[in-house]
Amino acid sequence: MEEKDSWGLTEEEIKQRLRRQNQENSKRGFAGGGRSSGQGVKLLYIRDYLYAKATKEHPKKAKEIQTFLASKNIVGLSR
Fold first, then answer.
1. Does the reported pTM lie above 0.70?
2. How many Cα atoms within 13 Å fall on the side-chain side of residue 44?
3. Would you write out the chain's pLDDT as a tens digit for each of its 79 residues?
4. SS3 track for 16-42
């Protein structure tokens, strides 16, 4: 069984919703805003990771976030 995020969605469901939203926006003529379609998914993963793992006393480093994103097959943080 696939792991679900804080909204009860699996990784594949998130990607499907994002693809559908991008297709609808494309049909309406909305530009992508210069960001890749995976940017929103990446931000959701980072947010969920920080909520689950980081505290004020134990903040997470960028390298730890990159490792987490890599485990989800998502391109890491860019510099």
1. no
2. 19
3. 556 555 677 888 878 887 887 787 777 766 555 556 677 788 888 998 999 999 999 999 999 999 998 888 886 555 4
4. HHHHHHHHHHHHHCCCCCCCCCCHHHH
